[in-house]
Amino acid sequence: MSSTTSAKNGTWRNWGGNVSARPAREVEPASVEELAAAVRKAAEDGLTVKAVGTGHSFTSIAATDGVLIRPQLLTGIRKIDRDTMTVTVEAGTPLKRLNMALAREGLSLTNMGDIMEQTVSGATSTGTHGTGRESASIAAQIRALELVTADGSVLSCSEKENADVFAAARIGLGALGIVTAITFAVEPVFLLTAREEPMPFDKVLADFDELWAENEHFEFYWFPHTGSTNTKRNNRSAGPEKPVSQVAGWFEDEFLSNGVFQVAQWVGRAAPATVPTIARVSSRALSARTYTDIPYKVFTSPRRVRFVEMEYAVPREALTGVLRELKAMVDRSDLRVSFPVEVRTAPADDITLSTASGRDSAYVAVHMFKGTPYQAYFTAAERIFTAHEGRPHWGKVHTRDAEYFAGVYPRFGEFTALRDRLDPERRFQNDYLRRVLGS
Description:
With 439 residues, the chain is α+β, with helices and mostly antiparallel strands. Helices cover 32% and strands 25% of the residues. It has 14 helices and 21 strands. The strands form five sheets. Strands 17-14-16-15-19-20-18-21 form an eight-stranded antiparallel β-sheet, with helices on both faces. Strand 10 (142-148) and strand 11 (154-158) form a beta hairpin. The radius of gyration is 21 Å and the shape is globular.
């Protein structure tokens, strides 16, 4: 598990190390019935309840001083239905286990994020996404879900059953109940050809609309203090499979992206003046490569260098302007940013509080190495994002509150009304939800 709890003092910490909490007690239910009983018992004791995944959120969305539900025992595939092409999994199942199990069955999700350490419910509840022209976030691939609500009852939701809850609970922030199982749409496993190549910052921005339109999945990383980016296009392929060779894979993914990168981060933290030079070297170290493999081996990669992250979704047409402002801000500041900025896209979806709800979106993610002061950089970046009606990722650092969200989410009131109905006593409340949804 990536989140850590030391039994000595019962403190829970997230993966990024920037959030900790001391729950009154922890429960590891082995069934939905046990989970529902734990919720009812918490109500009797006047305690709030939070389920936690692997702690990959950088916000305190999972923090609680009440009852902490750990879903380690609620894992595994309940059912694969080849007629409807769906798979139902327990909420605590790590994405990695789901992806590997599906591959063995000759199946795959259509799209996914760039890591797979999270639990399926943690990833979907916070709006985890990859990049895609037509294919959207992981939550947008949900066809049904099961939810334990505040009174301990179990609710089944889909487009046909409790449709209003389904519209919101796919990205429910843990505010509507505890998700116990998720049914995803799947398809026969397919091959993706990935083409990674460096490209000048100005060229990517000039050609962005074209690059987006011509590729099923387009993303790029810009290295601050440089005019360089590394682009990645993933498109479906007839094959044959041509995975990255183990030696090249180890060199690019482990040595360059994790090993050397880790050392570079340590140097940059100790001597910030070296950062621009390191950035120029890093941006040149990556060479072009092409490989073909099954989806999860192309979409996801290990992330061993720990960081803190802020990510905002802006209207897709605002992206190039946002990036130019971001680059100008870094260039004229004395900030030293050693982590690349990641840019991805998603089509509009119909999920109430999805960052892409009702609008075609582009995502801009800024990162800082764990332990480096990030406030000045994130504050300056956030000022740019919010000027473009940006919507922050629910699981990443931001300073927005309910008043702001009511302005950038047309259906915000729909979500809070549903929460009033499902959790009138705020059994699932915590400080984070109080701030982003209001009390």
